[in-house]
Amino acid sequence: MSVSERNSKEEEEFKNKMQRLKLNDQKMTYLQLFGYQLGVQKMQALSDALKVNQTLTHLEISLNRIGDKVIEALSEALKVNQSITNLILSYNLIGANGIEALNESLKENQTITKLNLYEKLEWKKRECKLYLNL
């Protein structure tokens, strides 16, 4: 399979998953987007789906190299989503602004009980303080 065929297949799988989320597919309680290279456009599609979804309980978006701008889009969705209980954002490029956006969303979201940001060995002092306040 060529790289373009694989990318096309991954794009189709992503669109299918977003559609299932929007339709509140009862069988879709766990979504793992591991290494999907999520950019702003895909994260916006995910955020839009999460705003209406009521079935997803576990969301893993690890190893995607997503940074603060992308996390800010996700954080907006987390303010209204009331089904996710477990959020895993390991091995991304989340900085202080992303942590701050997550912190703000968790003030409104009372359903997330587990948040995994395992990734950073070299966070700056501000990022550590923000993380400890989550």
How does this structure look, described?
Helices cover about 50% and strands about 10% of the residues. With about 130 residues, the protein is α/β, with parallel strands linked by helices. It has one domain (about 5-130): Alpha-Beta Horseshoe (Leucine-rich repeat, LRR (right-handed beta-alpha superhelix)). The chain has a four-stranded parallel beta sheet with strand order 1-2-3-4, with no helix packed on it. Helix 2 runs parallel beside helix 3 (about 70-80). The longest helix is centred in the N-terminal third of the chain and has 20 residues, at about 5-20. The protein is globular, with a radius of gyration of 15 Å. The protein starts with a helix and ends with a helix. The model has no long low-confidence stretch (mean pLDDT about 85).
List keywords for this structure.
Leucine rich repeat family protein, 134 residues, alpha/beta, single chain, Leucine-rich repeat, LRR (right-handed beta-alpha superhelix), globular, 4-stranded parallel β-sheet
